[in-house]
Design brief:
With about 120 residues, the chain is mostly helical. It is built from five helices and no strands. The radius of gyration is 26 Å and the shape is elongated.
């Protein structure tokens, strides 16, 4: 997502460079933030996602029961009912294969042997 503009018109390259140099000369600290990298393996991400999905039907049931009477026949109620009818056990029974997430499209381990 782009930053919001500072002025009414976009800055030129020279204006942007001048602002950068003035901030560095004034000793303004540079704050750079990054989102933390997700270092979980694909299998771990799979299990975490399935665990989150397993909690979803209970949340949908609670939401469905809290709907006012005038929304009981709405599209929202139909969607909540369909989501609460899902069986998370089917997803929990799936176990990713060994090497899940490390199998490259090139088939490198099979074609070239192990290293």
């Amino acid at each position: 997502m782009p930053r919001p503009s500072i002025g009414a018109t976009p800055m030129t390259d020279a204006e942007r460079q001048a602002r950068y140099r003035a901030a560095r000369a004034a000793g303004v600290p540079v704050l750079r933030t990054r989102r933390p990298a997700d270092h979980r393996g694909s299998a771990r991400r799979w299990h975490d996602t399935v665990a989150a999905l397993a909690e979803m039907p209970a949340e949908c049931v609670a939401w469905l029961e809290a709907l006012p009477a005038n929304l009981r026949d709405s599209a929202t109620a139909v969607a909540l009912q369909a989501m609460s009818d899902l069986d998370p056990g089917a997803l929990q029974a799936i176990e990713p294969p060994c090497g899940f997430g490390r199998d490259w499209a090139t088939g490198w381990p099979r074609r070239h042997g192990s290293r």
